[in-house]
Amino acid sequence: MYTMRNIHKNHLIFIVIAIFTIAGCNRSTQVKPLKPIHVATGDWEPFVGQNLEDNGPVAQMISSILIEIDYLPEFKFYDWGFVHPHLDAGCPSFAFPYLKGSDTLKYKYSDPIIKLDYVFFYYDTINTLDYNFKSVDQIVSANKKIGLIKGYTKFPGLDNDSIYTEVSNTIEGFRNLINGDIDFLLEAKNVGLQLIATDKVKADASHFHYLGKTKEPNIKDDSVFVKNLSFRIKFSSKVSNEFIASINSAIKKCSVTDFYKSLEAKVNDIQQEHLQAKIISPDHSVVYAYTSSTKEQVDYILPHSSKVAVLNWNKIFHSKIDKKKKAHAMLRSEVKIINGPLKGRVLWVENKNIELIQ
Is residue 335 pLDDT above 60, yes or no? Predict the structure, then answer.
């Protein structure tokens, strides 16, 4: 059995308004009636998902493209392994996002809609693994097992089915890494990094790494193992070339709009999520703020309960405590003020005065 849910109607209304009033996509002032069209996809947070705002930034890209050619998308969410049977049947007629694979005789592809890093994750609890692979062929020669999520495209240059172990989803893939059932898991970098930071993966996030990202300053060349790949719309073979040409034209037109570029920026900045926090003081009085991380002189004062976005946590939160250093409560983190008299300013505040908002 598969599960599917249509996009919420209020989300569609939001997207329509956004496209016509913000993006524009160079449309004429005469608005044509939009024709409903089914689009297949799956949960792939933080890029697309039923629980994301307006189904995520990549879904919003698809909406802008389709509205440009007078279609109103109705997203249907499937388990990724069930997308292909529906494409083969021609209903829905296309799905996203996909890497262009070697199956071009069976499926057709649009021009690129977005680029993402695609990587090999691995698990190492005591930082003893020192992979020194120079090519993807060496992974095969070393008899390493690669987890491939059902419905995903193989890594470029690694087309041999025998090296892959199929897993049902990303969570199961990371679980298999932890258990030693596979050596690597293929996944988009930001998808993996976001997931290991949640309680869905029952292991310390610092124990996960990916090829091309070393633990030492002498960073290796990651061009072999970290691929900046173009994700596309994947069409059933029954879809006409004329329709695909109209999609490609819409992609070209929409990709230069501010709205589309803002979505691209959101996709690329997903790992730079700025946590919301508030400024606190024990006696509910003002809090000192500074223009640098080390300056002694107080530059500003903030009201108690001021809201901020934490831009950069002090490095003490990312490493083990050194008891010889200055008291950790006095160390500062960089924040952007989002309300009050200093709204919009970027300042430094002592860690003891920052409280995360649940």
Answer: yes
The answer to whether 192 and 170 are in contact (CB under 8 A) is yes
Q: How many residues does the chain have?
A: 358
What pLDDT shows up at residue 250?
96
Contact between 152 and 174 under an 8 Å Cβ cutoff? The reply is no
Burial 101-125 (b: 16+ CB within 10 A, else e): eeeeeebbbbbbbbebbbbbbbbee
Same domain, 279 and 268: no
pLDDT for the residue numbered 329 = 46
13 shares its domain with 75 = yes
Do 151 and 221 lie in one domain? The reply is: yes
Q: How far is CA 198 from its chain centroid?
A: 14
Q: Check which CATH number belongs to the domain holding 139 and give it.
A: 3.40.190.10
Asked whether residue 109 falls in the same domain as residue 235, the answer is yes
Mean pLDDT taken over the chain:
80
Give me the torsion for CA of 143, 144, 149, 150, rounded to 10°.
10
Identify the domain containing residue 25 by its residue range.
9-113+230-272
Tell me the backbone φ, ψ of residue 330, rounded to 5 degrees. Answer: -90, -10
pLDDT of residue 30: 59
pLDDT, residue 98, reads: 87
Q: Which one-letter DSSP state was computed for residue 2? A: -
